[in-house]
């Protein structure tokens, strides 16, 4: 009988010699989870900043899809300006596109929310049990770019719009709703999504049937 040891199966060799990329990703994931837990200072009433939780939940509602959808639709119905209707119709299109895209990505990635999250969110749907990416963050970045490009605002108001988007993103981690990477990727996704909306801009020439409704 040969005394030579039998070679290890390929999958065992891979486990014993993990790739540099695998180690890097695992390390980044560990840092992400650690930082997210440390920053979840409003995750519960007994958390370090638990007294600020009601304020964080108000910010949460300000970035929720339902108020934005209903507000935009109401403004569209009440508007008597063709230019304003065009902008509002495209904002409505952007918000719907954002909801669909986030739901699809969440359903594909299926990353669970942080363990310290308290599931008391304002109006959720089935995919909201997943956390990647943050829908509030994508919406905040999308709306921020949209407003800055299509509304004439004074500099202080423009600064406030940007601050609002950043605060919405930060509040998601502070409430324990999301990990840091969920929010960062959400902000990037929302920022990029605006470019898609601009490329597919709806106008009386490109979508006459839609404008005929108003």
TrEMBL record:
<dbReference type="InterPro" id="IPR036938">
    <property type="entry name" value="PAP2/HPO_sf"/>
</dbReference>
<dbReference type="GO" id="GO:0005637">
    <property type="term" value="C:nuclear inner membrane"/>
</dbReference>
<keyword id="KW-0539">Nucleus</keyword>
<comment type="similarity">
    <text>Belongs to the PA-phosphatase related phosphoesterase family.</text>
</comment>
<feature type="transmembrane region" description="Helical">
    <location>
        <begin position="88"/>
        <end position="109"/>
    </location>
</feature>
<dbReference type="Pfam" id="PF01569">
    <property type="entry name" value="PAP2"/>
</dbReference>
<dbReference type="InterPro" id="IPR000326">
    <property type="entry name" value="PAP2/HPO"/>
</dbReference>
<keyword id="KW-0812">Transmembrane</keyword>
<dbReference type="GO" id="GO:0005789">
    <property type="term" value="C:endoplasmic reticulum membrane"/>
</dbReference>
<feature type="domain" description="Phosphatidic acid phosphatase type 2/haloperoxidase">
    <location>
        <begin position="87"/>
        <end position="198"/>
    </location>
</feature>
<dbReference type="GO" id="GO:0006629">
    <property type="term" value="P:lipid metabolic process"/>
</dbReference>
<keyword id="KW-0443">Lipid metabolism</keyword>
<dbReference type="GO" id="GO:0042392">
    <property type="term" value="F:sphingosine-1-phosphate phosphatase activity"/>
</dbReference>
<keyword id="KW-0256">Endoplasmic reticulum</keyword>
<feature type="transmembrane region" description="Helical">
    <location>
        <begin position="146"/>
        <end position="171"/>
    </location>
</feature>
<keyword id="KW-0472">Membrane</keyword>
<keyword id="KW-0378">Hydrolase</keyword>
<keyword id="KW-1133">Transmembrane helix</keyword>
<protein>
    <recommendedName>
        <fullName>Polyisoprenoid diphosphate/phosphate phosphohydrolase PLPP6</fullName>
        <ecNumber>3.6.1.68</ecNumber>
    </recommendedName>
</protein>
């Amino acid at each position: 009988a040969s005394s030579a040891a039998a070679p290890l199966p390929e999958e065992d060799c891979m486990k014993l010699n993990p790739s540099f990329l695998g180690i890097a990703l695992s390390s980044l994931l560990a840092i992400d989870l650690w930082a997210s837990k440390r920053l979840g200072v409003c995750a519960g009433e007994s958390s370090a900043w638990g007294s600020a939780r009601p304020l964080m939940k108000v910010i949460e509602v300000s970035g929720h899809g339902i108020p934005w959808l209903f507000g935009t639709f109401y403004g569209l119905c009440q508007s008597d300006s063709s230019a304003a209707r065009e902008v509002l119709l495209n904002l409505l299109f952007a918000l719907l596109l954002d909801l669909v895209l986030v739901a699809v990505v969440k359903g594909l990635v299926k990353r669970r929310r942080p363990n310290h999250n308290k599931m008391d969110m304002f109006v959720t749907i089935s995919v909201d049990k997943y956390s990647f990416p943050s829908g509030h963050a994508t919406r905040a970045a999308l709306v921020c770019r949209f407003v800055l490009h299509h509304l004439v605002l004074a500099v202080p108001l423009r600064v406030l719009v940007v601050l609002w988007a950043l605060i919405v993103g930060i509040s998601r981690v502070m409430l324990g709703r999301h990990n840091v990477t969920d929010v960062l990727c959400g902000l990037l996704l929302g920022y990029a999504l605006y470019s898609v909306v601009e490329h597919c801009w709806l106008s009386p020439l490109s979508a006459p049937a839609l404008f005929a409704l108003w």
